[in-house]
From TrEMBL:
<comment type="similarity">
    <text>Belongs to the phD/YefM antitoxin family.</text>
</comment>
<comment type="function">
    <text>Antitoxin component of a type II toxin-antitoxin (TA) system.</text>
</comment>
<dbReference type="InterPro" id="IPR036165">
    <property type="entry name" value="YefM-like_sf"/>
</dbReference>
<feature type="region of interest" description="Disordered">
    <location>
        <begin position="69"/>
        <end position="90"/>
    </location>
</feature>
<dbReference type="InterPro" id="IPR051405">
    <property type="entry name" value="phD/YefM_antitoxin"/>
</dbReference>
<dbReference type="Pfam" id="PF02604">
    <property type="entry name" value="PhdYeFM_antitox"/>
</dbReference>
<dbReference type="InterPro" id="IPR006442">
    <property type="entry name" value="Antitoxin_Phd/YefM"/>
</dbReference>
<protein>
    <recommendedName>
        <fullName>Antitoxin</fullName>
    </recommendedName>
</protein>
Amino acid sequence: MDTISVNKFRDNLKSVVEQVVSRHEPLKVTRRAGEAFVVMSADDWEREQETLHVLQSKSLMQQIADSLETHTRGQGYKPTEEQMNEITGI
C-alpha cells in the first residue's frame, strides 16, 4: 500500500482520489500529530466488507470447504458451455 502525507494528499486531492479509484488500491495517509487513515474507493470498500462477512460466517466457510472438496474429487457441478459463456460474459 502506498503512503502519502496528509499535506500532499490535501494539495493533490482530486488527482490522488482519481488514482485510488482507477487503480483499485487503497492509500495510507499519514498525519504528523495523529493516527494515519486509509482512502479507498467505495466499491473496493464494499467488496472488502462482503469478503469479511463471508470469512466470519462459519456456514459459508463450510460451504466453500465442501465445494472445494467435491471439486478436488471431480464430483462437483459442471455447468454447460452455454452457462459458462453466460458466467464469463462471452
